[in-house]
Design brief:
Length: 263
């Protein structure tokens, strides 16, 4: 995985106080140039005395692809658990595996670098099954916006974002959104489609695909970025990302709210 190696070190933190989180984050000396993971791991072993350097692919608070790569010492079983980092970065298996060996905690500090975006094959992760025939949309290539730097402010916001959230659930939702965004315009699955593969980690049926593609009706934030959408408590069918958006949109929605009309 190719990266610009300007890293941040995140020290042990077990509380979600912004001031405390900020105090344990620091910019450290660059890793070897060339984004060579073997060289990066060797440098971290030399610099920190880590014995088994492993990597994790993760999302930042606003990442539209897996934009963070995190190194930690998997062999460390004695240092204090880094609770805040563990909670934010427990998206996938070790070394970026979609599925693989489970890991429990990050102990001690960890080092974070920005991951370069992948080139996504538009339509390449979709497959529809209809009348015993599988079909795949036409594929083209697209890229994501890329900012090689990670500021301390961004990292504070990312760690705070994952408070009370399960990182693997966030990652799954982002994966689905990323794949949905790669769907070619104008392509529709057959009417009798039974299954749609829309994510590297899951299979979704047509009803689930329709839900996955929903956006907040007020601010247009996609479900994958909002993680969870809330629905009008009356009609149960109009999605919002927050109570604030629901209130802001009520003057529009109340005109067509089906439940309100029945009263």
């Amino acid at each position: 995985m190719s990266r610009v190696v300007t890293p941040l070190e995140i020290g042990v933190c077990s509380t979600y106080k912004r001031s405390k989180i900020r105090s344990v984050i620091q910019v450290i000396e660059p890793l070897p140039p060339g984004a060579d993971e073997a060289k990066e791991k060797a440098e971290l072993r030399r610099r920190f005395g880590w014995k088994d350097v492993r990597g994790l692919t993760c999302y930042s608070a606003t990442g539209t692809y897996r934009d963070l790569y995190v190194y930690f010492d998997y062999a460390d079983k004695r240092s204090e658990i880094n609770k805040v980092a563990t909670n934010a970065f427990k998206c996938y298996g070790l070394d970026g595996a979609q599925v693989g060996k489970e890991w429990n905690h990050i102990r001690g500090s960890c080092v974070v670098v920005r991951a370069e975006p992948p080139v996504t094959r538009v339509g390449g992760m979709f497959q529809f099954f209809s009348s015993n025939v599988s079909s795949t949309p036409p594929s083209t290539s697209t890229t994501h916006d890329y900012d090689p730097t990670i500021s301390i402010d961004e990292m504070v916001e990312t760690l705070m974002f994952f408070k009370g959230k399960k990182a693997s659930t966030v990652a799954r939702s982002r994966d689905i959104e990323r794949t949905q965004a790669s769907m070619p315009l104008g392509f529709n699955p057959p009417n009798d489609a039974r299954l749609a593969y829309v994510s590297p980690s899951t299979v979704r049926n047509p009803d689930q695909v329709a839900r996955d593609r929903e956006k907040c009706l007020q601010c247009q934030k996609p479900k994958g970025m909002a993680i969870k959408l809330y629905y009008c408590p009356c009609s149960k069918d109009v999605p919002y990302c927050s109570r604030e958006c629901q209130k802001a949109h009520w003057k529009v929605h109340k005109v067509t709210c089906s439940a309100r009309k029945k009263k």
